[in-house]
């Protein structure tokens, strides 16, 4: 994109760039290189000429599939590098021209090698984890059998000694009975050893008991440290178990239960003498596997580093190729199948650059025939394109969030650069808070190069994107804060001493009646003597309320004036005579007059009641004004203004629909086959002006007089009621400014000064901490957001609805510069 540098918006930001529909006829042999050069240029929005075909029926579907497969491999490499803790190389390596076929082969080989390494590594790691578990089973089960053998030996000795001591006549008979027992009927016990997750151990024990009807003996010993599970690869707390059973049926049941509970079984030799040898053997195998795994990881890391060094270059190549073939699929194939035909929108200023790119592509591809460039004439509405820079883009986004400007209509973004931060500052006026906001923004501006290349969180990224908007808001807040004379709600005598002094000591907290003027008027902003007096709130309320009305009427007048420039630009005389003029008369006859009275009252120091004047201007326009008269001839002027306001309503409503009908009839009387001129087309499109209709073929439309009249009626009612409601809406400037000021006073007096008054260091520190958190959390975050949203509403509703249609569509060129922001 051709973004302009500098801090100030170019004057052509007032209207979008002049666009043209162009047609390119490109030879097939140079088509790929041509589209590549046009992508580098980034100034054409291609139209899809194959919209009737599915993606699989298009010419370059196979190439897109190949690129998609390569993009999948690149995503696989990226995932593997992130898992291994590697980052892709950000250094801008010298971009070499890589052949797509060679890259495809190379990526396939690297993927196969990496998959094989991963599979081998996983297999080795699983075997390693199994051996660790096996060693744990051998140790714990060995301890159990050893302790069981010791207990059994001790019991036999005890029984033997007891039998030796209790000789009787019956003893030989019993021994003879024991020896005569059939050896084949003796029950032989088997056992199974393994590990079971600790969280499942209780359920495991219950199920074993129920399945075998209690004919098992289960012994569990918890492992001290979590064990890496061979299957899942996660750390799990486990118990070593030994299950004794009798019979094959019981064994089969136990094996199935072990499988269901994810219990890993390991063999344990019945010959307890071999236990030590097995542990030594397993330990040896573990150390060997560990060495093998480390060697495999080293090789894998080397491979990933090699990929990482060239990852960005390959990734950009794949993205570019995919976008080139996607664009080529939007082009239609000529009947001779030797040329591709492209259509698209481009700015008029880019024609020379596009032609140069076409010539360069034809030369570089050794094409015998060059591409043909020609401009098409169309009645389709072009896209809207504003050349913005890093400063103006955020303000333009604020406007575009409401609606993209119609092609070449007046752009409110130019005025938003000043009016938006100013209206914000009117509500946020405190130069202490403004400085805090400015310092926070300065952090983003100073480090913008580093932060722009990083992945930020959602809120941080949004704040970073609007850093210049917040900077302007903070600067204007410092300015309005100096006017209000508030620094965290504390007044300062920055521009000189106060003009007022106390008549005596008793007037400190009294009304302003107790003050006498002893010096010249305070040169800039509110006199610090007002702060702290009982008259502070009535005085500031009156000042801010009147100021809000003045600012609101001024901005609404600006909106109506911009509608005049729109009508002049589109040669629409109807909108000038029957929309702009009556709207200006109506608004200024009522609220323009109110603004005039406010200024006169300020200049003369009159005690006139403006509420009374405005109300009785409607209720009793012929009554005498008495003490409310501000200037000679006021009564006659009010009657004239009231009559003008009443006349302007039918002036807006009635003539326009009838004139549109007459123009339509004149145009179609004997002119059915005459092409429409641009001026006539604009006039005819007025029939659908209020419904935001555009891009229709008006030649064959019936003129619906009733529909046009209803739309004009709605538009008139909306403006008349909106003039009142919109003016009242600007009073939010006064309300939020008052709320911000009073919250600052509360935090300063009831937190900071209160903590200061205790003469206790701990209470003072706590008070300062609470004051800082309250100021940052409430005043610098919540109040900033609140004032931002209210300023946004004033621009979208009160200002832009006077002239801005916002029913266009954005210019989205084919550009490689935009590929970095897109995810596959």
Description:
It is found in: Membrane. This is V-type proton ATPase subunit a. Belongs to the V-ATPase 116 kDa subunit family. Residues 93-127 form a coiled coil. The protein has helices at 28-41, 61-84, 100-165, 171-179, 201-211, 248-260, 275-328, 351-364, 392-402, 413-428, 431-446, 448-452, 458-465, 467-484, 536-569, 573-604, 610-619, 634-653, 655-668, 678-685, 705-729, 732-756, 761-799, and strands spanning 19-27, 45-46, 190-197, 217-222, 227-228, 235-236, 238-245, 264-266, 332-333, 339-347, 372-376, 500-502, 515-517. The protein has 824 residues and is an alpha+beta fold. Strands 1, 2, 9, 10 and 11 form a five-stranded antiparallel sheet that branches. Strands 4-7-3-8 form a four-stranded antiparallel sheet, sandwiched between helices. Strands 5-6 form a two-stranded antiparallel ribbon. The chain is extended and about 140 Å long. Residues 1-11, 173-181 and 672-700 have low confidence and may be disordered.
């Amino acid at each position: 994109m051709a973004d302009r540098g500098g801090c100030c918006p170019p004057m052509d930001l007032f209207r979008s760039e002049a666009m043209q529909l162009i047609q390119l006829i490109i030879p097939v042999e140079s088509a790929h290189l041509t589209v590549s050069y046009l992508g580098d240029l980034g100034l054409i929005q291609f139209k899809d000429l194959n919209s009737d075909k599915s993606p699989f029926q298009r010419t370059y579907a196979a190439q897109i599939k190949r690129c998609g497969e390569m993009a999948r491999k690149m995503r696989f490499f990226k995932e593997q590098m992130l898992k291994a803790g590697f980052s892709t190389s950000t250094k801008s390596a010298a971009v070499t021209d890589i052949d797509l076929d060679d890259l495809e082969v190379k990526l396939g080989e690297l993927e196969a090698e990496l998959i094989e390494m991963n599979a081998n590594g996983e297999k080795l790691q699983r075997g390693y984890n199994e051996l660790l578990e096996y060693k744990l089973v051998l140790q714990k089960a060995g301890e159990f059998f050893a302790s069981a053998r010791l207990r059994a030996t001790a019991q036999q000795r005890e029984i033997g000694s007891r039998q030796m001591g209790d000789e009787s006549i019956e003893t030989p008979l019993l021994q003879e009975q024991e020896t005569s027992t059939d050896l084949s009927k003796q029950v032989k016990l088997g056992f199974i050893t393994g590990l079971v997750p600790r969280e499942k151990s209780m359920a495991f024990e219950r199920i074993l008991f129920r399945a075998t009807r209690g004919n098992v003996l289960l012994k569990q010993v918890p492992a001290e440290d979590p064990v890496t599970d061979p299957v899942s690869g996660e750390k799990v707390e486990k118990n070593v178990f030994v299950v004794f059973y009798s019979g094959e049926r019981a064994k089969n049941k136990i094996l199935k239960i072990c499988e269901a509970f994810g219990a890993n079984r390991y063999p344990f030799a019945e010959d307890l003498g071999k236990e030590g040898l097995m542990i030594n053997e397993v330990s040896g195998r573990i150390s060997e596997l560990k060495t093998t795994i480390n060697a495999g990881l080293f090789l894998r890391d080397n491979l990933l580093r090699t990929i990482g060094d060239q990852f960005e270059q390959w990734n950009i190549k794949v993205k570019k190729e995919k976008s080139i073939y996607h664009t080529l699929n939007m082009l239609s194939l000529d009947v001779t199948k030797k040329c591709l035909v492209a259509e698209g929108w481009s700015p008029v200023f880019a024609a020379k650059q596009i032609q140069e790119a076409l010539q360069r592509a034809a030369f570089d591809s050794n094409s015998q025939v060059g591409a043909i460039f020609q401009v098409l004439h169309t009645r389709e509405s072009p896209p809207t394109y504003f050349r913005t820079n890093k400063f103006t883009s955020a303000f333009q986004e604020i406007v575009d969030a409401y609606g993209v400007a119609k092609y070449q209509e007046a752009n409110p973004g130019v005025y938003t650069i000043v009016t938006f931060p100013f209206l914000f500052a009117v509500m946020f006026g405190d130069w202490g808070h403004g400085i805090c906001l400015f310092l926070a923004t300065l952090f983003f501006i100073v480090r913008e190069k580093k932060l722009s290349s990083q992945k930020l969180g959602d809120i941080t990224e949004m704040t970073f994107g609007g850093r210049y908007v917040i900077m302007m808001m903070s600067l204007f807040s410092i300015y309005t804060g100096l006017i209000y004379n508030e620094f965290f709600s504390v007044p300062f005598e920055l521009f000189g001493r106060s003009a007022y002094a106390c008549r005596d000591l008793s007037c400190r907290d009294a009304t302003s009646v107790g003050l006498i003027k002893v010096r010249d008027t305070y040169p800039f902003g509110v006199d610090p003597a007002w702060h702290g007096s009982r008259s502070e709130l009535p005085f500031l309320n009156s000042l801010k309320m009147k100021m809000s009305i003045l600012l609101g009427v001024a901005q609404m007048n600006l909106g109506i004036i911009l509608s005049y420039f729109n009508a002049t630009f589109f040669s629409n005389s109807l909108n000038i005579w029957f929309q702009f003029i009556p709207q200006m008369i109506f608004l200024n006859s009522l609220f323009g007059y109110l603004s005039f009275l406010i200024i006169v009252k300020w200049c003369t120091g009159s005690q006139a009641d403006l509420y009374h004047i405005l109300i009785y201007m409607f209720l009793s326009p012929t009554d005498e004004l008495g003490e409310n008269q501000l200037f000679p001839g006021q009564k006659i002027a009010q009657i004239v203004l009231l009559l003008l306001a009443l006349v302007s309503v039918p002036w807006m409503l009635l003539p326009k629909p009838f004139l549109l009908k007459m123009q339509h009839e004149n145009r179609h009387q004997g002119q059915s086959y005459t092409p429409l001129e641009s001026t006539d087309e604009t006039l005819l499109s007025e029939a659908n002006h209020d419904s935001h209709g555009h891009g229709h073929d008006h030649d064959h439309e019936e003129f619906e007089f009733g529909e046009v009249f209803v739309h004009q009626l709605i538009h008139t009612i909306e403006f008349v009621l909106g003039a009142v409601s919109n003016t009242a809406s600007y009073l939010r400037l006064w309300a939020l400014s008052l709320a911000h000021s009073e919250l600052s006073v509360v935090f300063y007096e009831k937190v900071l000064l209160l903590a200061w008054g205790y003469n206790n260091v701990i209470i003072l520190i706590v008070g300062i901490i609470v004051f800082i958190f309250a100021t940052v959390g409430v005043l610098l975050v919540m109040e900033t957001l609140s004032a931002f949203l209210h300023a946004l509403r004033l621009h979208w509703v009160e200002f832009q609805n006077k002239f801005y249609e916002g029913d266009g569509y954005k210019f989205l060129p084919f550009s490689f510069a935009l590929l970095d922001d897109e995810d596959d």
